[in-house]
Write a structure and sequence with these properties.
By secondary structure, the chain is α+β, with helices and mostly antiparallel strands. About 65% of the residues lie in helices and about 10% in strands. It is built from 10 helices and 8 strands. It has helices at about 5-30, 70-75, 110-130, 135-155, 165-190, 205-225, 230-265, 270-285, 285-300, 305-310; strands at about 35, 40, 45-50, 55-60, 65, 85-90, 95-100, 105. A hairpin with a 5-residue loop joins strand 3 (about 45-50) and strand 4 (about 55-60). Helix 1 runs parallel beside helix 4 (about 135-155) and helix 3 (about 110-130) packs antiparallel against helix 4 (about 135-155).
């Protein structure tokens, strides 16, 4: 089989995997659960706003101690909207437990907007690969687009699936794409519109190795938590995931630096125009996403803008806020 044929076959297989899992992932997102009360971080603890507007400390969810927003989200992923879950609260020196019926995390409009955006990425990537199947840059661009689509489609959803392994497979695809896409962007910056010195491309080896490491640790921690939920494992899982967010920042900065380097070195006007468009896109897109969402979440548990804004959906929500 020729290299071009291999790329086309690989592209078809990747799309087949996403399509086969799209129904499970959509169901997971539609049934993803969140507490019906508002909650937000405050001095290394979580404050909950109950229906009488009182503010109390949320100390445990589903019998598991929590101290950060993402811990609550991960625990709720063990359930689905409509389930009854016990929450423990601390009000000054008084502790009490209450049961709440979980509500939906995402609106229907939000979920299908995500799917529509993912479809656009897949179509754009497929079109480029179809037009230039012999170009390595076209194949890497296709992988970038498909990876972004996988992140959108397979993002954290309820783990209550039948069979159970189908939900775990979707989370595996998400973590694999989350680790690989940033490196693919760096790879793309090295081959389009001009190829940089071959020696600089050795940087890809440790980056791809780190991507595999983050995928392995994130997914392994999730499997351990899913099989035996406890506060220790959940902290490990969210900790690994936070480090993978910093890895995204590193890759975005490297890609932008390479584009700037290529722009300075380029001699053809056409190449400079392409690089300027790519650099502008990176500054507005990936870098904006990292600075406004990824990095703030790593340190505070929430983005500077809501997930609603990131996904072009005014009805979605990352966490209920008051």
């Amino acid at each position: 089989m020729s290299l071009t044929g291999f790329r086309i076959l690989a592209g078809i297989l990747i799309q087949a995997v996403l399509i086969l899992n799209i129904f499970t992932s959509t169901s997971q997102l539609l049934r993803k659960a969140t507490p019906p009360f508002g909650f937000y971080p405050s001095n290394d603890k979580i404050l909950a706003v109950l229906e009488d507007s009182s503010r109390v400390t949320l100390s445990a969810a589903g019998g598991i101690k929590v101290s950060e927003l993402e811990s609550v989200e991960v625990i709720c992923d063990l359930y689905e909207a409509g389930d009854i879950v016990k929450f423990d609260f601390l009000d000054r020196s008084r502790t009490f437990t209450r049961e709440f019926q979980l509500t939906r995390f995402y609106s229907t409009f939000h979920v299908f907007t995500q799917l529509a955006i993912a479809a656009i990425f897949i179509l754009v990537g497929s079109f480029v690969l179809y037009k230039q199947p012999k170009e390595v840059a076209a194949f890497i661009f296709y992988l970038c687009c498909t990876g972004v689509a996988a992140i959108l489609m397979m993002t954290w959803g309820t783990a209550k699936t039948e069979p159970v392994w189908s939900g775990d497979m979707n989370r595996a695809i998400f973590h694999l794409a989350y680790g690989m896409v940033p490196v693919l962007f760096v790879h793309f910056s090295m081959v389009y519109p001009v190829r940089i010195d071959r020696r600089m491309r050795f940087l890809l080896i440790p980056l791809y190795m780190l991507a595999v490491l983050f995928f392995s640790t994130n997914f392994t921690a999730w499997i351990y938590f899913h099989s035996s939920p406890n506060s220790g494992i959940i902290s490990t899982y969210t900790g690994f995931f936070d480090h993978s967010r910093l890895f995204i920042l590193l890759c975005v900065v490297i890609a932008i630096a390479i584009f700037i380097y290529s722009y300075v070195k380029a001699t053809r006007v056409e190449d400079k125009k392409r690089l300027l468009w790519l650099l502008t896109g990176f500054l507005v897109g990936p870098l904006g996403f990292v600075l406004l969402w990824v990095i703030p979440q790593a340190f505070t548990g929430e983005g500077l803008v809501s997930e609603t804004f990131v996904s072009f959906d005014r009805n979605g929500k990352a966490h209920r806020r008051t």
